[in-house]
Amino acid sequence: MAEKTSTPQALALPPAIEQQLKQLPAVAANIKEFREFLKAGVDTATGYGKAVLGLGYIGFFTLWAGTRSQVGAHFPRLVLWSALAMGLSLFFYMLFEVAQSAVISFAYFGMVERLNVQPLNVALYGFKTDISNRYVKLLAVWRLVFLVCVALGFGGAATLIVGWIRTLAV
Questions:
Q1: Is 89 inside a domain boundary?
Q2: What is the number of domains present in the chain?
Q3: Considering the domain boundaries, does residue 153 fall inside one?
């Protein structure tokens, strides 16, 4: 008698799991689209925050240049405190930008080194993982730097405005 060669029922997947497996490409596409959407949102928000900080620095230093002689004549310490606060804000902002540039550059240098010793697909996967981890860390640092820069910037601007109002009252 010839034996039947058929797949045992124990190895067959339940229909619900087979249906889920068929949907995996669509789920993967949705995840990819969502990640791209999130990245675009983070990039936009970060860019907007940096633009606002830049405009704030320009506005402050323009105001400071125009009022420091009048405010400084009556309240020289207020002018110095406002300049110190804004200078520290600008320092932390520039420190972050330089560090961010270095971190991203080093990731790309690492990619070049990987390509010399690893197959392309392995090097690309390693690079994507590395750059993703670096961006997560940079974003966490940026949150802190942004708050420090804004607090010092508003403190410096408020100090200058208080000095200007007090000068007008003299």
A1: yes
A2: 1
A3: yes
What is the rounded distance in angstroms from the CA atom of residue 84 to the CA atom of residue 91? 10
Q: Are 67 and 164 in contact (CB under 8 A)?
A: yes
* 156 lies in some domain: yes
Residue type, 158: A
In tens, the pLDDT along 11-61 reads: 666 777 777 777 777 777 777 787 787 778 777 888 888 888 888 888 888
Q: Which pTM was predicted?
A: 0.69
115 within domain boundaries = yes
| Residue-range definition of the domain harbouring residue 147 | 50-169
Cβ within 8 Å of residue 141, ≥6 positions away: 96, 99
* C-alpha dist (Å) from residue 39 to 44, 60, 72: 8, 31, 46
Residue 96 makes CB contacts below 8 A (sequence gap 6+) with 141, 142, 145
